[in-house]
Amino acid sequence: MTFIRFSRAVLLSPLLLIAACSSDKKPDAQAAAATPVAPVAVAPTPKPAPVETPAAAETPAPAAPAGFDPSTVPVVSPKLGAFPYFTLLDNYHKGTIKDSEVRSEEVKDLMKDAAFDRYEFFDGVKIIPVEGRLATIKAVGNGASFFQVQKTYEKLVHDLGGVTVWEGNMEKFKDAKLNFDERRHRGRYNMWNSEKAGVYMLRTPDKEIWVEPYQIYDDHENYWLTVVEKKALPMQASVLPAAEMKKALDATGHVALYLNFDTDQATLKPDAQATIAQIIALLAQNPDLKLAVQGHTDNAGTPAHNQELSEARARTVVANLTAQGIAADRLQASGFGQTKPLVDNSTEPNKAKNRRVELVKL
């Protein structure tokens, strides 16, 4: 019992001491509370400057596929034969009107050997127009699949240092929603999904050579071959001055002019404006002069088409003259199609000579 009392005494002592200490501090705390405190001005906490949220960067539209770039093709210097450089496969020959597989319009309008023309190639993404010397042949024969045709010309071009531009089904061309300015033998009745092509290219220091074997939808025995040697337009004529036009009109009553139109169209090319300017000068210097403007074509295409084309080209020339101040009553437009050639149409240079516009003194 003595031990228990001692323990309680020990435990109570700290409690009494704590109470005494608390009692001693109360008056000081009350006094502090009673003492007035001078107010302290507190500067307002500045509001943080608003953080500008950067505008979301516009996501650029994805770039359209570039397709084939001719400038990336290595320049090589192979030994080449004569244009068109490539022969037909064994057991094939150039089609003629005597072949049952060749329609008459194919011979007249589609099979070509032109000193200068324009052909459009499909590279799997876009159309690449190429201007220059052109040959298009319908190869008639049998024994080769079109796959063999493709791979034969691909190897020939590759062996010379060239490249493959594209091979495949022309359904891809249709899906790309493209259209050739001149389809020629391709895409008859829009049967693109049944046609195939291969496009190959060779680049030398002074030219590009493009090769396209092509299979049309309704003829899987034969194939078409087009070769284009890219080059600048050979200038075969110069602008005839107004004074020379007047001299010819006085001597013979007519003068032939060679104006460049878009192929098979009545649209003048920009370089034709130099000749138009000389006709305007001629008429301005001779206010009493009246002229018939007569269009002429070669024999490519049907006579009816050539008649319409020659008339349309004559009207285009007259429209250009009247638009620049020449009175309409001084001009007459007419066309003669292929009926009045200057020379026979047996060669390309002769055909070029027959494609003309004549000024005839009225």
Automatic annotation (TrEMBL):
Q: Where is the protein localized?
A: Cell outer membrane
Keyword flag DNA damage: no
Region span, Disordered: 42-63, 337-362
Biased composition annotated in UniProt, kind: Low complexity: 52-63
Occurrences of domain OmpA-like (ranges): 248-362
Q: Give a yes or no for keyword Membrane in this entry.
A: yes
Keywords, alphabetical: Cell outer membrane, Membrane, Signal
Q: Cross-referenced InterPro entries, in alphabetical order? A: Bact_OuterMem_StrucFunc, OMP_bac, OmpA-like, OmpA-like_sf
Look up the signal peptide feature and give its range: 1-19
Q: Which PANTHER family match?
A: LIPOPROTEIN YIAD-RELATED, STATOR ELEMENT OF FLAGELLAR MOTOR COMPLEX
- Annotated protein name in UniProt: OmpA family protein
What lineage is this protein's organism placed in?
Bacteria, Pseudomonadati, Bacteroidota, Cytophagia, Cytophagales
